[in-house]
Amino acid sequence: MDHVRIASVPFVNAQPLTWGFLRGPYQGLFKVSLAAPSAIPDLLRSGKADVGLIPSIEYLGLPGVEFLPQIGIASKRRVRSVFLASRAPLEDLRSVALDANSRTSAVLLKIILAHRGLRDVTYVEKAASLPEMLREHDGALLIGDAALAADATGLHVYDLAAEWFAITGLPFVFALWAVRRGVVLPDGVRPFLESRQIGAANLPLIAREAAARMRLLPASIEEYLRVNIHYHLGSEEARGLDLFFRQASEAGLVPGHRAIQFAAPADREPAQAGRHQR
After folding, report:
1. How many CB atoms lie within 10 A of CB 115?
2. Quick one: which of 53, 109, 202, 209 is 20 to 30 A from 18 by CA?
3. Listing from the earlier edge strand, what are the strands of the sheet with 156-159?
4. Distance (Å, rounded) from C-alpha 208 to C-alpha 216?
5. Cα–Cα separations (whole angstroms), residue 98 to 64, 105, 121, 143
């Protein structure tokens, strides 16, 4: 294999994970392509990608993959980039337009609403435009850059990570690196750990570039990347992920449940990754 083929998403929250592959020392070993979160499972399934940053719920429909350990996109409290916006209070919700980009957030929303006693809500997938989504529906679920850039002034806004934490007391894991079984990664998971460290060292630059593209303040984007989300998965994240999978299965929102499998244990994280800053 000349290059390990990585499929990632075009959202700013993935850039700290892919920085070492796109702008750092691993450009010659890894080939990165960008795709919608909902498309990456098919790239892995068809063998067109070796590693993919998948919405966490997609794992249950991909029996031929394992997660890379220690790495993901998670939030302990308020995530900001995954929320339900509605014109009326939650108890009056009858229909929701779903951002078609991620099944994970849609499943999470349904679990949260069920905990609130709302089980007769209808759902329709729509393009990620808040005004258009609310034109014919009571609420709209937005994720990623579209959520960060949306103007929700005057609306009821429910942050899904905060709602999950209020119910469970656990962080929520939105996405993880999934690798196809049989794929040999140069140096195992180490390049992914080092790419994450390189990204962390370059958060101000990532935030400035994203803010210019999204017409937001760099400080707001950097705070999002530093405070609202994190990229280290530990025991609490693993518990939260397993609980999410079990609740989704018990609610009949996914075909079934299977044990979470991680690839071979990671090496110790590189201590000097910061030397690759650009």
Report:
1. 14
2. 109
3. 122-126, 95-99, 139-143, 82-86, 156-159
4. 9
5. 28, 9, 12, 9
Using alpha carbons, select from 73, 75, 56 the residue that is nearest to residue 65. 56
Q: Which residues contact 11 (CB under 8 A, 6 or more apart)?
A: 81, 144, 145
Alpha-carbon gap, residue 257 to 248, rounded angstroms: 8
Distance of alpha carbon 73 from alpha carbon 178, whole angstroms: 12
CB 184, CB 116: distance < 8 Å: no
In this prediction, residue 2 carries a pLDDT of 63
Residue 46 in tokens? 């068809």
pTM exceeds 0.85 for this model: yes
Give whole-number Cα distances, 60 to 41, 47, 257, in Å: 11, 18, 7
Number of H helices, E strands in the chain: 10, 12
What number of other Cβ atoms are within 10 A of residue 117's Cβ?
A: 8
**Can you say whether the dihedral through the CA atoms of 102, 175, 161, 150 is positive or negative?**
negative
Is there a contact between 109 and 79 (Cβ–Cβ < 8 Å)?
no
pLDDT given for residue 32 in this prediction: 94
DSSP secondary structure, 53-84, as one string? EEEGGGGGG-TTEEEPTTEEEEESS--SSEEE
Q: What DSSP character marks residue 272?
A: T
Cα dihedral 55, 60, 65, 68 sign: positive
Q: Are strands 71-75 and 172-180 parallel, antiparallel or unpaired?
A: antiparallel
Calpha distance 228→76 (Å, rounded): 7
